[in-house]
Amino acid sequence: MKMLVDLHTHTISSGHAYSTISENALAASRKGLQLLGMTDHGPSMLGAPSLYHFGNLAIMPEELYGVRILPGVEANIISHEGELDLPINYLTRMKLVLAGLHVQCYPGGTIEQNTQAYIKAMENPFTDMMVHPGRPEFELDLEKIAYMSAQLQVPVEINNSSLAAGKKETQENCHRFASYMAKYKGPIIIGSDAHFWDRVGVFDRSLQLVEDAGILEDQILNISPQRVLDYLQDRRRRRFTTI
Ligand SMILES: [Zn+2]
Ligand SMILES: [Zn+2]
To answer: How confident is the model at residue 243 (pLDDT cuts 50, 70, 90)?
Structure first.
């Protein structure tokens, strides 16, 4: 399976990532990727960029080294109601909005509260995709999330960095989640979650898991740039019918 898109990467702007957008784009270009998401952490994370960063993304070139860039955010879910840490007038300007749970940004809670927060963020018409449900910090009802992903047609990530980190609990969560995604047939993205340029486009663990779990190629959004761009366009169109 040839992946042409990485939708989840961080630059030096995130505060704990170490490459520039130019370095990430060059790495993407050398790997044959055609579309790259620049998704630095939302402002409530320690060391993450301020609102000014997100307000100025329009100056980014459309393309670097022949790779189309989607400037966006990996927003933090900050409450049990699934609120995100970027105001709506900023979210509307992002070309790509990922959302996920992160330590220090989300207060924590019971499995029901965590799952509700995650699903409410998924239902938010300004969220495009959900990330790393397999991380062990906050317990989630992974079957419910897979079911809702199929219902809402919002992609959820199989995160390569989570798998590569090698924690037993994370591995088990990711395997369980992948089997639920195979069962309910919701859309997925495979993201590198690169925090350094050499990780951009690295999908080996996620691809192996997708194959082992029996997830269909049709379910994987970021196989082709066109599939991603069509989805994003449709998601933006649907915003006006859901708010
Ligand atoms: Zn990070
Ligand atoms: Zn994250």
So the answer is: low
Q: Which ligand is nearest to the CA of 76?
A: 2
pLDDT at 167 (0 to 100): 87
Question: In which domain, by residue range, is 228 found?
Answer: 5-242
| CATH assignment of the domain containing 160 | 3.20.20.140
Count of domains for the chain: 1
- Which residues are close to ligand 2, an ion, with C-beta < 5 A? 100
DSSP 3-state helix, strand, coil percentages of the chain (rounded to 5)? 45, 15, 40
pLDDT at 103: 96
**Nearest ligand to residue 47 Cα:** 1
Distance 242 CA to ligand 1 centre (A): 30
- What pLDDT is attached to residue 145? 98
Look up residue 196 and give its DSSP letter. S
